């Protein structure tokens, strides 16, 4: 079943809101910040106070704040801020989950013993906490779910959203892709990848490590195909493994690939693309499992504008000039290190 | 730094009372309900804060109610029970 994309809300290294993402696409230049002297992408949450009173946020961690911010912006984008949300489901895809809170909880346990472990940290570290915060703050009382399947989290979670809509369990799904960065993650990445984390991020250079840690939340209001779509439709979501059953790329679609400078995934893109032209936008938001949701947000904006935007960064193979889509479909392709892939086909 | 000053500081930091300044918390202000506006979840955090930052254990939540009335009562309990 096709799903209509009715609204989009994003916060990431490029800024917050669809307008910020669109501006980044128009500029076409990589964006990267810095944390502790190391290149990194950080998501802003300052605007969340426009949607939720500050006092109500004091027990909510950074991961859930990004989640809430993305969700509220997506809802505002649809113009549905004041409607009944009793049949709106919430599905969140995340590769890492609440990293900062989980490590804070473990630290307090290790440093002071179980008696001094914060119950607030514990409750925020529960896997579905962010989805629950969204459901509570928005009174979205239909089911809520968080899906983690590392690099495949977004595709996997989209299949659940699609199923709920097909079953008629919900009228709409507030779908979000969220991941956060933290000091421990940056330390681990430095240990694993060394100078490969220094940037610049070169998604089209499949043979070298150039990933830079990122974070953010990309949200979508999804509905059944009979409903109007402001950003086009998700036609099909496919999960597979290229090693056992090679991916079949749609011949006429333009391609947005989730290549994000991870060498381990690069070989799969190289093998599957076979020299085919593609676009990649990781230099706008960085490298993290849920970044596939940001690729989908770029696809949504591209369908709205009927324009395939230039890939940021002029490295070999991946740069395209902006061009009209001519009603073509857009396919987002994301590989994991073991050849597993998620393919999301979209069209107007 | 006095126990009272430190208490105000850690309350704001650990309970994320971002909109409150230490000097806005008066020594006799009620910590729960009217006053600082803490609730039952904060009470559990407060037990942990006192143990973590001052090394003082509060074992009985019911008996602790008078202790949690204000910064004055809490600071007095800490000073009387600090190791």
Report on the architecture of this protein.
The complex is a heterodimer of chains A (348) and B (83). By secondary structure, chain A is of the alpha+beta class. Chain A contains 10 helices and 14 strands. The mean pLDDT of chain A is 92. Chain B has a single domain, classed as Non-ribosomal Peptide Synthetase Peptidyl Carrier Protein, Chain A. At the A-B interface, loops of A face α2 of B.
List the helices and strands and how they pair.
The complex is a heterodimer of chains A (348) and B (83).
Chain A: E1 3-12, E2 15-16, H1 18-27, E3 33-35, E4 38-40, H2 62-78, E5 88-93, H3 99-112, H4 119-125, H5 129-138, E6 144-147, H6 153-167, E7 172-179, H7 183-193, E8 216-224, E9 233-241, E10 254-257, H8 263-273, H9 282-285, H10 291-305, E11 307-308, E12 323-324, E13 330-335, E14 340-347
Parallel strand pairs in A: 5-6, 5-7, 10-13
Antiparallel strand pairs in A: 1-2, 1-8, 1-9, 3-4, 7-8, 9-14, 11-12, 13-14
Helix pairs in contact in A: 2-5, 3-4
Chain B: H1 3-14, H2 40-54, H3 71-81
